[in-house]
């Protein structure tokens, strides 16, 4: 049943076109327009062939290996399990090799190795492990999924240099580091590279300015290397999985991050932001509390991911978004800046700011 639903969704467009064309063909033939009917028939056959060719997929087999980074929880953990269910040999990178995520993956026959994308030695050791698995089991490296990422909520002025640097190191430089080390194998096997992007690249939002910047950077990087690597038979695509913060541990340390911001904040800033920072940190600190480790349940997200993984002629970007995201992002593109900024604030729905009188060092109020 699920297979039939998937096929129907995937080919619904061409089915609708074929049905409409068939009705037009029958009408033209009955009205005596045989040459027109023949033309319609040829166009339908040609269009169907081209569509099927463009939408054709590769197959996953047991000798195909897929490398996924950032598999301790959330999306990486879920994609590793899903790729294993598809029949691939999965090699997962985890930050905590003795964590629950690593344990669960190992129980599902996933090859698990420690990986800290911010450290060159860790990346090199992980790549050596990947090479050993490929050689030992005579596998083909089918795909590298650059998923490892961190997100820290908080206005730009509040975030410390270490917090900003950490997001850049993991989200952007880390993906470049692991990709570069794997490039000899990627070229040799004509592999695919999937970059996990974000709606924050399409429309950066307040509160995650640094995170949005890293996602914009990695998408720009992916766009460039897509052209660079095409001549070597390597395909590069971006995948936007949608929002799943309530099902992930990506914000599990947010309360700790807010405490670091508070301790590092200058006295003037503490006075200026006052209760706004308190309300802000309380609100976003409770958005995604650490919960039970489990695979993401959004079936549509996996369908879009499979398109990114298996399409023989992939698009540059694959997006999974709810109707709310679709409406908002359409409006973001179509409205003037003033209206768009207002819509962005409504989209985020964070605590409101109320300006209060602040005592300046010279004793005046502003």
Write structural notes for this entry:
- The chain has 366 residues and is α/β, with parallel strands linked by helices.
- It contains 14 helices and 7 strands.
- The protein has helices at residues 2-10, 12-30, 34-54, 74-85, 100-107, 120-137, 161-189, 199-202, 209-230, 254-264, 267-285, 299-310, 323-334, 337-348, and strands at residues 64-68, 89-94, 111-114, 140-146, 192-196, 235-240, 317-319.
- Strand 1, helix 4 (74-85) and strand 2 (89-94) form a beta-alpha-beta unit.
- It is globular.
- The model is unreliable at 1-7 (pLDDT under 50).
If you compute it from the alpha carbons, what radius of gyration comes out, rounded to the nearest whole angstrom?
25 Å
Strand content: 5-15%
Rough outline = globular
Mean pLDDT: 84
Number of strands: 7
In DSSP terms, counting alpha (H) and pi (I) runs of 4 or more, how many helices? 14
N→C terminal distance: 65 Å
Could you give a short account of the major beta sheet?
7 strands, parallel
Spatial sequence of strands, sheet with the most strands: 3-2-1-4-5-6-7
The unreliable regions are 1-7
* Structural class category: alpha/beta
Helix and strand succession? HHHEHEHEHEHEHHEHHHEHH
Bin the helical content. 55-70%
